[in-house]
Design a protein that fits this description.
347 residues; Creatine Kinase, Chain A, domain 2; alpha+beta; 14% strand
Length: 347
């Protein structure tokens, strides 16, 4: 979130800020749909610790650059008080095309997400990972939930960003695909018919990125701190490795599309307080129990990937996730304006 340093309201100035950034930082910064959203992206890394170290350095560089311009940055799923009338669309060609396609839907309050790319060499392995990740998406959303406020009031949702972003087309849970060819043909027919200009206009919770050779997980809210992000990145990388390895039987299996959609809703509503539907038990499993089972199953994979410490930090995050920290801060006298100041300091 790009913020005014004095008021902590969203500052829709990305188009004027980008050309003034130092060249090294500019390589890692991009505009997004809204003028008050700034994408900060790491380079490619072989392990989670290196990626997180770069993310921390980039946050520091960005803060220094923005301080000189009377601006701040913060990360959460949504700004707690902004209203859609204050939003502005970025001037870039892609985002003007989005506005032409989505009309006033594009002007709803900006949302902010954590996207994680994991490289997978073989297309069929990538497809296997994407299909397998579908059952883990509700848990990833619950653990990352970090947007309990909307238009100045508490919504009762852990991730308000999720239903807000859901107003866009081509979002949510993708279907299971038979193989990589099925995936390619399904998207290609939409391209041939002119539905959208290229595949990144698909905003599913998880998708393949053939341009980069990655599986991209997109369901998670943006995180307040680098440490919070580290836990989620390690969990995503370990889950991809586990699904490709074919040893995911220790966690609840895939349910029907309807059951997965219901669990996704429960995650957005309740966060880590959710009780997910379990098709094996024909009952419920708490998000905390499911996380514990999932982390235990992922541990051998995290050991191979060199991210065991970061993976284990997911247990710490689960005890006080971002949405609960925001609620506590707002209720303890800071109010919503004070909350955004706290988020900026934590950044």
């Amino acid at each position: 979130m790009l913020l005014h340093a004095s008021t902590f309201a969203l500052a829709p100035w990305i188009d004027s800020i980008l050309p003034t950034l130092a060249p090294h930082l500019l390589e890692h910064v991009a505009a997004e749909t809204h003028g008050s959203a700034l994408e900060l992206r790491t380079g490619v890394h072989t392990d989670v610790p290196a990626a997180i170290a770069e993310l921390a350095a980039l946050r520091g560089e960005l803060r220094a650059e923005l301080d000189d311009r009377g601006l701040r940055a913060a990360a959460a799923g949504m700004h707690p008080t902004t209203v859609w009338q204050e939003s502005r669309i970025s001037g870039g060609e892609r985002y003007q095309l989005l506005y032409e396609s989505l009309r006033e839907l594009a002007r709803r309050e900006p949302t902010f997400a954590l996207h994680v790319h994991v490289a997978v060499l073989d297309p069929e392995d990538a497809m296997r990972a994407m299909n397998g990740l579908r059952s883990h998406l509700p848990l990833l959303l619950a653990l990352s939930a970090n947007s309990p406020f909307w238009q100045g009031r508490e919504t009762g949702l852990a991730s308000t960003r999720t239903p807000m972003f859901g107003a866009f087309p081509r979002v949510g849970l993708p279907r299971a695909f038979n193989d990589y060819g099925d995936y390619v043909e399904s998207i290609d027919v939409l391209l041939r018919c002119g539905a959208f200009p290229e595949p990144t206009f698909l905003w599913w919770d998880v998708r393949l990125q053939p341009r980069w050779g990655t599986v991209e997980v997109r369901i998670m809210d943006a995180q307040i701190t680098v440490e919070d992000s580290a836990a989620l990145v390690a969990l995503v990388q370990s889950l991809v490795h586990m699904e490709i390895d074919g040893k995911a039987a220790a966690v609840p299996p895939q349910g029907t599309p309807e059951l997965l959609a219901e669990n996704r809703f429960l995650a957005a509503r309740d966060g880590m307080a959710a009780h997910f539907l379990d098709p094996r038990l024909e009952s419920h499993v708490s998000a905390h129990d499911l996380l514990s089972m999932t982390l235990d199953a992922c541990a051998p994979h995290a050991d191979k990937l060199g991210c065991r410490e970061e993976l284990e930090s997911a247990r710490v995050l689960s005890r006080c996730p971002g949405t609960e920290r925001q609620r506590q801060c707002a209720r303890q006298g800071a109010g919503l304006d004070g909350l955004v100041a706290v988020l900026a300091d934590a950044f």
